Amino acid sequence: LPQRLATLATAAWEEARQSRQQLQAQRQEMARLQEQLCRARQDGERWASALQRAQREALEREATRGAEQARQQELIRDMKGRLLELLREKDALWQKTEGIDTPMPSPPPRDGGLCARCRKDFRLLSRRYNCRLCQGKVCHACSVDVGKQGRCCLLCYQQRHPQAT
């Protein structure tokens, strides 16, 4: 019996030692996992902070973009208004000079490289249009867009639409 007790005590002692080693290993594993958890939380906070900063910057960019778009739309509206003013002024000046010129549309020039109205050379940046009424070749400044029908020279347009002047 004493030997059996000694064997049981030794086995219990060995089992206790193994349990202590397992406990120690589990504590080390738990410490390592807690450290990883702490790092993961820190990373999560950094990512959340970065996300908030990115969202804030995106909102600021969107606001800036919206303001810029509004400014550009206002600029376009102003430019369209100025264009209409200039067209009216051009038409008024053209009306003043109409009596000086012949009242009929001038025949197309023999040289296909000149505008029938202002005698401007057609080059890379000055486009040539055929008047749909008199078939004269005119530049962009001396023509009017009449929609799907094409373009016609100012003289023909004003003769057909006297109210437009």
Automatic annotation (TrEMBL):
The gene is Rufy4_1. Residues 16-43 form a coiled coil. This is RUFY4 protein. Residues 109-161 form the FYVE-type domain. It holds the Pfam family RUFY4. Signal peptide: none annotated. Keywords: Coiled coil, Metal-binding, Zinc, Zinc-finger. One of its GO terms (molecular function) is zinc ion binding. InterPro entries: RUFY4_dom (IPR059036), Znf_FYVE-rel (IPR017455), Znf_FYVE_PHD (IPR011011), Znf_RING/FYVE/PHD (IPR013083).
